[in-house]
Write a structure and sequence with these properties.
Blueprint (H helix, E strand, L loop, with lengths): L1 H15 L28 E3 L6 E3 L6 E4 L2 E6 L2 E5 L7 E3 L6 H4 L18 H14 L6 H22 L8 H12 L13
Antiparallel strand pairs: 1-2, 2-3, 3-4, 4-5, 5-6
């Protein structure tokens, strides 16, 4: 009887675990997004995103330029390409630069009507120099938008934090431990330690 049980457990184990060296097909096919159609090269705006400049195409959610690459969020996946109308390739989310991930998806809706537009040709020729010299930080319209962007980000973070339980601080944690060590017969709460 014992041998039958061992045999059944062994068979169950062999069936549930793939053999060493056996190929397991875990490829997931992620489609390529449809091409973007523009009448001409698109104008962009600079997003006030902290220590690096991220550019986006106004009116096109999820299309960004950063560090000589274009990034696109489409169908819950990220893609990247060398040109805005180029061949899009899937990229894992953890490889997308944090500056892009931190841009709110609806940021394009909050752009002021006369927010400064940058011609594509200027971006293509000057983005590197602009980034290194912190070019946009000199302009009042950028400074105003940066302050507004930070205000919206702070409000969004506060709203998100309202739904989290407050964190324990070290002092509260020590007090909880002291209360647990008090003798159960001490009715006044002043307590003697065990």
């Amino acid at each position: 009887m014992r041998q039958i049980i061992y045999l059944m457990v062994s068979l169950l184990f062999l069936i549930s675990v793939p053999l060493v060296g056996a190929a397991v097909d875990v490829n997931i096919t992620i489609g390529v997004p449809p091409p973007l159609v523009f009448a001409g090269p698109p104008d962009v705006v600079v997003v006030p995103s902290g220590t690096a400049y991220v550019y986006m195409v106004p009116g096109r959610p999820g299309l960004y330029f950063y560090n000589n690459f274009w990034y696109r969020f489409h169908g819950s996946y990220w893609y990247w390409a060398h040109t805005y109308n180029g061949r899009w390739s899937y990229i894992e989310t953890h490889l997308v630069p944090r500056f892009i991930i931190d841009v709110p998806p609806d940021y394009y809706r909050h752009l002021p009507p006369r927010y400064y537009r940058i011609r594509y040709g200027d971006l293509d020729r000057h983005w590197y120099r602009w980034d290194k010299s912190r070019h946009w930080d000199r302009y009042d319209w950028y400074k105003r938008e940066y302050r507004e962007h930070e205000r919206r980000r702070h409000a969004r973070d506060l709203h998100r934090d309202e739904h989290k339980p407050p964190p324990h601080n070290y002092r509260d944690l020590k007090k909880d431990r002291r209360d647990q060590r008090r003798h159960p017969d001490d009715r006044r709460g002043g307590g003697r330690n065990r």
